[in-house]
Amino acid sequence: MRMERGFRGKLDDYLSVDTPFQVKINTVGGAVYDTCCFCVDANEKLSDDRYMVFYNQPVSPGQEITYTAQGNAAEYAVQLTRLPAAMEKLVFTVSIDGSGTMGQIRSNTIQIVQNGQTVLETELHGSDFQNEKAIIGIEIYRKTVWRISLVARGFNGGLGDLLRSCARSDTASGSCAAACTRAQNHSNTASGSCAAACTCAQNHSDTAAGSCAAACTGQQ
Questions:
Q1: Are residues 152 and 173 in the same domain?
Q2: pLDDT at position 220
């Protein structure tokens, strides 16, 4: 089934939520695109940074979510039944690593696949956006039952703005400052991921700083 912008539905109308499935995201355009999956709690906050699954942290603690990628195409293997009860929503995002905007992409396709069959899919285009540097594509969330929503919401400030929307409110301290310094001292061609590491570190607690710094370290 094709999802249109604003689509919402019960996930078990399309697949078995007790069985693993895959979320495939492919962005085509003139830039490098990074994908990420955030697992957030009932307050829509990233309360455990180990559940920020991306290229430099490709597996969640209980292997509930695993990430693989080839070029600008990413795949997340998801096992909802293994998620901790505190995790209420999976947020799938795309951000630009470097220059460019989402308004310049040729396409962004998202497919939900189970047992080799595509059960839900959508294709977004540059005309769906303007000057955004990052977007939330879909959300899979628990509301009595597991549901899915095609959000297609953009953030002009990129991954940093997106992270702020789900960051914990703890005050950044020494470890976070170190992560920020690492990002700021990166090369003159510092990528979007490194800049985002700085923003991420400033908005997270000490325990989150490691993964944030890793986003920059992975680019060096």
A1: no
A2: 39
Q: What is the pTM of this model?
A: 0.79
Q: Are residue 79 and residue 183 in the same domain, yes or no? A: no
- Sign of the CA dihedral running 57, 117, 26, 124: negative
Could you say which residues of the chain have pLDDT below 50?
169-220
Residues 151 and 179 in one domain: no
Q: How far is CA 142 from CA 38, 181, 194, in A?
A: 14, 37, 32
Range of the domain at 65: 8-166
Last residue of a domain, one of 137, 166, 195: 166
Q: Residues 130, 212: one domain?
A: no
Amino acid at 196: A
